[in-house]
Every structure is written in C-alpha cells, then in structure tokens.
Amino acid sequence: MKKIIGIACVLGLIMSLPVTAAAQGTRFTIDLSGAFLTRAAGSSIPLVSSDIANPGTGDIFTSDSVALDAWKAGGDLRLGYAWGKFGVEVRGFLMAKPATAAVYTIAEGRVIAVELGSPCGYGAPSGSVLTAAAQDDKPLMGLEANVTYALTPKIQLYGGFRYLRLDQTYSLRGQFSSDPNNFELDAWTAKNKMLGGQVGARVDILSLAGGVTQGFTAQGHGAFLLLSNKADVDLQSVFGSSSLWAATGTASKIAPGVDAGFQVGYRLNRMFEVHVGYDLLWLGGMGEAVRQTRSVDTYGDETADPQFKSFIVHGAKAGVTVRF
C-alpha cells in the first residue's frame, strides 16, 4: 500500500510540473545526450623503421598505425538552475575507451630503428613478430561547473571551472622466437590532468515565440578554455626475465582549447525537447602516449621529458532536454 501511495505521489508531481513551469517560468534544466565520437589522428610521426642505417622512415609503424580514431560511444549530462537572469550549472562528459593494434613480421633478420629521441637499434631476427598497440586506460572524461547569465532572451553567457582527464598506454612488443622468454616489451604511459577555466556563450538561432509550446529550435554554443595540463609519463622496458628498466617524468603545459557545437531541436511541449547536433573539442596541449617515444633520447635514460601536441574530439549527438 505504501508503495502505491508513493508511486501516486511521484506521478502527481510529474503531472504538475508543466503547470508549475507555466506559472513560475523555467528554473531547472536537465540535458542528457548520447554521442558517437571520434578523434583526429593528428600529424603522423615514425615509431619503428626497418633499418637503423636509415631511420625516420616509419616503414614498419607510424603513429597512424595505432591511431585511436575509431568511432566510440559517449555522452554528457548537464544540470542547471536559474533565478532571474543568473544561474548555475554542472556538466559531466565521458567517451568510451578505444584500443587498436598493428602487427608486423620481420622477413629478413636486421637491426631495426625504434624512433626515440635518437633512433636506437633493436635486433630483430628473421621471423620476429612486432606488435604495436595503443589504448585508453580510462575513458576520456570531463567535468565543469559554471555560472550563467542571460544577456538577452536569445544569448546566454557562461563561465567557470573545467577539468579533463586522459590516461593512455602505447606499447611495442617484439617476440623474437618461439621461446616465450625471448621477447622485449616497451610500454609508454601518459596521464593527463587538465584544470582551468572557460568562458562561452549559447545563442538561440531559432527559438519559439512567446506562448508557443511546440516547434523547431536551433542553438549554437562556443567556449574558450584555458587549462593547465599536468602530464605524468612513465616508460618501462623489459627483456624476457631480465630486470626492468624504467624512466619517468612530469611536466606542466598551458593548454588553450575550444569547445563548440550546433544543434537542431523540436519542442514537444513546455517541458520536453528532443535534439540532434554536432560537437567539437580542441585542446592545444595534450600528452598522448603514442608521442612519448620522443620523451627519452635512448634506452637507459631515467628521466622522461613529456611531449605535447594538439588533440581533437568531435562527432554527432542526440538527446533530450527537460525544463521545469
């Protein structure tokens, strides 16, 4: 009986929300979107070349060989509350973990070049199997908290704090014979923690006239980000059962960025709106794992110098907005 009464109360509250919204105006906003996202591979760099006497060709592996540019699921949730022209909001963003690998078999024994800061020789007998792999160790994630201000009925400004996290690993494994202990494994990990601020605006390109509760809408948004990226890099190398060699390094980098997008929606009633759109996030200083081969000059170094490059995520989204 208590459960029935509870359900009835919840249903009664939901049924009353449009009336409340009509009487008091929109105060709460919930925006939930699913996305289908990819990453731009960026400029290609050689990772492994077939001859130490002629390094830099990348004719075995380049960063394109293990680019994490597959389309992956993602999504975000934005919660907002407004009073008058002012408001506050929080948003969370997540993208599923991509992983990729490339395999190459050495047909003729040779000393190949692993493209560190200075190309290093890597003995590879005939039949050796080289495997390059890259992956996100954790989903790409972001959090933000903003203050909003309705500059005009069609323009909303916002600004606040922004946090992004990306953990990755790139590895190179050489299996030199059928003996399971006759291998070498080199693995580079990079952990990026980005924290800073942003300012931006949302603009209603197409909005409903006063009193209209159904119809099409269109909105664009753009924000400028200024973040500090603290990147931790770790390289570990082991040959069979021999002792582990490791190099570590930490560096900070100022990372500007742009977060922009466009969406078209249809307002079903005062409370619900469905929408589809396109979003893009560009960051100027990300330390991706596949680029950390240059963080050491040669095997045996104990200190790694983190390497930074621009980073782009973009793709389509679809979702629903609830206002009450």
Would you list the SSEs in sequence order as H and E?
A: HEEEEEEEEEEEEEEEE
Tell me, what's the shape?
A: elongated
- Average pLDDT, rounded to a whole number, is 91
- How helical, in percent, are the residues? under 10%
Low-confidence stretches: 1-24
Major β-sheet strand ordering: 1-4-5-10-11-12-13-14-15-16
Q: How many runs of DSSP E, i.e. beta strands? A: 16
Strand content bin = over 45%
Class from helix and strand fractions: mainly beta
Distance N to C terminus: 29 Å
The biggest beta sheet, please?
A: 10 strands, antiparallel, barrel
- Rg (CA only): 25 Å
Number of helices: 1
Describe this protein's structure:
- By secondary structure, the protein is mostly beta strands.
- 7% of the residues lie in helices and 62% in strands.
- It contains 1 helix and 16 strands.
- It has one helix at residues 2-24, and strands spanning 28-39, 46-49, 61-62, 72-83, 86-95, 99-105, 110-114, 120-124, 129-136, 140-152, 155-175, 183-206, 215-239, 245-267, 272-286, 309-323.
- A 10-stranded antiparallel β-barrel has the order 1-4-5-10-11-12-13-14-15-16.
- Strand 10 and strand 11 (155-175) form a beta hairpin.
- It is elongated, with a radius of gyration of 25 Å.
